[in-house]
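To: structure subgroup
Subject: Chain for Friday's discussion

All,

I'm putting the inputs and outputs inline so they're searchable in the archive.
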Amino acid sequence: MDLNFDLNEMTFNYRVASLIRKDDMILLEYNSKYNYYSFIGGRVKIGEDSKIAIKREFKEEAGYDINPTKLWGIVENFFVSRYKNSHYHELLFIYNCEFKNKEIIEEIKNLEDKQNIFKWVKIKDINEDNFKPQVLVKFLNSEEFIHIINKD
């Protein structure tokens, strides 16, 4: 069971995401319906720790094994979902990750959602208009741990 539930007029969501770098690029998921990029990841299940969750989510979505090397950041995210038009309180844990076999995979297919694609994107080409959560854009070049409270 995913740690995603409704409480009165708010939804609680616990997510994990991967930050995989290659030179001046990062691996992102592109949502073609809403025209934005985001980190590859998903919801944590009850009783599951965040490191296990990111490994599972990446394997389910991309078919590859990854190693989370360190926690890059935590976002306490408060927003209104475009999907459900409901208020969200989300905890997002983002891990620096690498492919388990240390290779760089050039082309990765999304196994769960054919509408969304995974692609390597130059960090300099990412802006607040095409990335979610937008607040992270200014930190994409940083190797330092970040903790953000974001209220959209």
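Points worth raising on Friday:
The mean pLDDT is 91.
The domain at 4-151 is CATH 3.90.79.10 (Nucleoside Triphosphate Pyrophosphohydrolase).

D.
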